[in-house]
Amino acid sequence: MASTVPDPVTRRAPADANALAAAVWPQGAHRDADGRLVVGGADASALAARFGTPLYVVDEAGVRARAVEAKAAFDRAAAAVGTDVTVYYAGKAFLSGAVVRWMTEAGLAIDVCTGGELAVALAAGADPARIGFHGNNKSADEIERAVAAGVGTIILDSEAEIARVADAAANAGRVQRVRLRVNSGVHASTHEFLATAHEDQKFGVPLGRAVELGTRIRSYASLDLLGLHCHIGSQIFDAAGFAESAERLLAAHAELARIAPLPELNLGGGLGIAYTEDDDPAPIDELAERIAQRVAETSAALGVPVPKLAFELGRAIIGRAGITLYTVGTVKPVPIDGGVRTYVSVDGGMSDNARTALYGAAYSARVASRTSDAPPALVRVAGRHCESGDIVVDQEYLPADVAPGDLLAVAATGAYCWSLSSNYNHTPRPAVVAVRDGDARVIVRGETEADLLARDLGLEASDAVAAPVRGETA
Ligand code: LLP
User: Fold this and answer.
1) Do 392 and 354 meet the contact criterion of CB atoms below 8 Å apart?
2) Looking at the chain, which terminus has fewer C-beta neighbours within 10 angstroms, N or C?
3) Interval between CA 285 and ligand 1 midpoint (Å)
4) What is the residue with the minimal CA distance to atom 6 of ligand 1?
5) Does domain 30-59+320-446 have CATH number 3.40.1010.20?
6) Whole-number Cα distances in Å, 185 to 57, 143, 160, 236, 239
7) Ligand 1 test: best mutation among 312, 350, 358, most atoms within 8 Å of CB?
8) Beta carbons within 8 Å of 102's beta carbon, 6+ residues apart
9) What's the CA gap between 401 and 1, in Å, rounded?
10) What is the DSSP letter of 248?
């Protein structure tokens, strides 16, 4: 198979299209003597044979280690400036009962943003006092449930929510701890940040109103204002945007802190990971240190105590630990202007990974079932959905002999893949399997066609449809 495509080619041709870039694949991922990909001690081909494809695979030890590493990095950075820090795991990246337990055991608190995520966290035994509840349009029911459950903090996202949460807390006879989400005007992504007076997005209240609304929150006996919050974006590689945003928030924080104690500052999440070997996020301890330093310097300049810090990390905790396994179905050379593009179609797609279609995200892929001496060829990995935009990996070099039946692994799919998955084209969602020390267990059962048909009440015998069960039960 020869493949030539016109510019722009954004990926560099690797010397070896079998190589696993160290920062991209789960820690310890390697090939065994037969060239098969091994993750968490488990052979990817055996996982595919046992559970079917597509399949999400999570390296449990990798997630746990990363959670511990992140917490330790922020703990050290906070201690160095004489404060402490709460590290939340942002459940939107991927939430399940097992993940809640891994995070809790690593000492992380849990950040949720819907009643559904709250229900998972509570059902998995998370301490309600260590749950933060987000959302720019929480329903009355969600607010009541959160208050009744005793969640540690509710992040107020709008002026309207102040009275809503105050009333719900008063009705429940509670004092609810809250944060106020502020739009700092800083938006960051990967290498750059943009700092403006106003940012055009739906979250939070304008920075210019933080003091007024913070003061209003304090006027309610049923609310306890813990501090300000902001979240500046996602997949950010360096500290500059966080530091700028912290500085902006601290001006309002200081005004509020001069009136009454304001213990905390929450700087959200957004730390990036490497999806390809070209991505080079700063190490987490370096980021934590630079952010904490800037908070300390700014606090000193403003004459206020260094606040306790909080962060909410999703992708940086779980992104790298996940891979997705697919089976190659077709390999199709497509003549295009100036060359040929090779489409490698797999048995999943935008229903299990929407990020390429949604954000133009880049991914790395490798043939997982074997190695090959064939030269690297530039391909596009496409899904099986009825959409030309159904691309899993826009550009990747695979061995030129990639063929139907090969098992393909896509790296760094631990965050925002399962959680953004859909049933598009009546596709059942794949199972999620955790691997550890060579053992594999299903942590989220895959859907079956029977699951999908059972909810269609227009069918004659919606619960009587026979379909194979995908993914063993836990
Ligand atoms: N805190 C808040 C308030 C957030 O809105 C988010 C993510 C996080 C924390 C966690 O961000 P992380 O550390 O995972 O970057 N679906 C997109 C990302 C959306 C992020 C939304 N908010 C993607 O797949 O790239």
Assistant:
1) no
2) C
3) 20
4) 269
5) no
6) 37, 27, 21, 16, 16
7) 312
8) 60, 63, 64, 67
9) 6
10) H
Tell me the CATH number for domain 61-317: 3.20.20.10
Write down the residue that tokens 């309207």 correspond to: 160
Shared fold status for 30-59+320-446 and 61-317: no
3-state SS assignment for residue 411:
coil
For a mutational test of ligand 1's pocket, the pick from 92, 237, 315, i.e. the residue with the most ligand atoms closer than 8 A to its C-beta, is: 92
Q: How far apart are CA 304 and CA 261, in angstroms?
A: 10
Please report the atom of ligand 1 found closest to the CA of residue 272: 15
* Distance from C-alpha of 306 to C-alpha of 177, rounded to nearest angstrom: 20
Is this model's pTM higher than 0.90 or not?
yes
Give the domain ranges of the chain: 30-59+320-446, 61-317
Closest atom of ligand 1 relative to the 93 alpha carbon? 14
Two tokens, residue 455 = 């909810």
Ligand 1 binding pocket, CB closer than 6 Å:
90, 92-93, 111, 134, 231, 234-235, 268-271, 312-316, 355, 359, 415-416
Q: Separation of 64 CA from ligand 1 center, angstroms?
A: 19
Write the residue with the smallest CA distance to atom 20 of ligand 1: 234
Q: How far is the CA of 456 from the centre of ligand 1 (A)?
A: 32
Q: Please state, in angstroms and rounded to a whole number, the distance separating the CA atoms of residues 350 and 352.
A: 5
Q: Are 252 and 230 in contact (CB under 8 A)?
A: no
- The residue whose two tokens read 């009541």 is 144
What separation in Å is there between the alpha carbon of 93 and the centre of ligand 1?
A: 7
Looking only at the bridges linking them, the beta strands covering 109-112 and 322-336 are unpaired
Distance CA 443, CA 420 (A): 17
Report CA(269)–ligand 1 centroid distance (Å).
7
The Cα-based distances of 433 to 117, 123, 360 in angstroms read: 20, 20, 26
Q: Which protein residue's CA is at the shortest distance from atom 14 of ligand 1?
A: 314
Any bridge partners for residue 310, and if so which?
86, 266
Give the nearest ligand 1 atom to 88 CA. Answer: 9
Using 50 as the pLDDT threshold, list the residues of the chain that sit under it.
469, 473-474
Active site residue 417: no
Which helix (H) or strand (E) covers residue 242, if one does? helix 240-259
Interstrand relation of 37-39 and 205-206 (parallel, antiparallel or unpaired): unpaired
Structure tokens at 245: 């945003």
